[in-house]
Design a protein that fits this description.
191 residues, alpha+beta, Aminopeptidase, 4 helices, 8 strands, binds coenzyme A
Amino acid sequence: MTEQKSELELKDDITFERIVVAGDGWRAASRLIHPLEVETFGDQAFNLDEVEDSLQQPKTVLVIAKDGGKLVGFTYAVPVSYTKVKMIDIEREDGGKETAYIYDTVVSADHRGKKITPRMMDLLLPALQKEGFRFVERDTAVDSGYADQVQRHYEQRDLMIKAGPEHTSQWGTQRFMRMKIPTPLRVQNEI
Ligand SMILES: CC(C)(COP(=O)(O)OP(=O)(O)OC[C@H]1O[C@@H](n2cnc3c(N)ncnc32)[C@H](O)[C@@H]1OP(=O)(O)O)[C@@H](O)C(=O)NCCC(=O)NCCS
């Protein structure tokens, strides 16, 4: 179904993988992540058709986290031109052509607070860059304090382009954010 492209082994046995959804691998990949989506968001979850629709878009990048072979987290980003959720209407310096949108980020309840999400982002962002994206956008929940956390994360790294406005959605108040994807440091002696 899918091909594992990169994996980072960590001492807590959590592994991170970029799943390349080649051919019709999007079907199996959607079935892999959808139960955790439903467990997390209940009635507000994307349905299986919506997840399949996202994962079969060209250039979509999916990253998962596993603990002992069990899925404990996932995140995926799609080209912003594809995005079907309500989007903020903004001027983009690239006209949106080099912009990805992080559609979904989930960690299972028993694995939260272990910084699994920033570690998934450490795989997602370089993979997006390889697909030709230079910018990334997302909407983030305000009431839980998550938007402030994520905003701080990107501001501390001098990657934030725009934070806000806030808007209402089926998931409550969300803050829109647009960020630069960091350029990888050149390895010494790289030619
Ligand atoms: C929100 C959720 C994805 C966070 O995942 P997590 O792995 O538990 O995150 P942690 O609390 O361990 O991570 C905290 C650190 O990661 C950073 N971080 C969290 N999410 C991040 C993101 N998307 N991008 C960059 N950094 C992020 C935070 O800034 C924080 O860093 P700090 O400690 O230096 O301040 C998880 O709680 C979850 O799945 N919740 C239910 C679903 C949900 O609300 N999804 C998000 C919808 S907007």
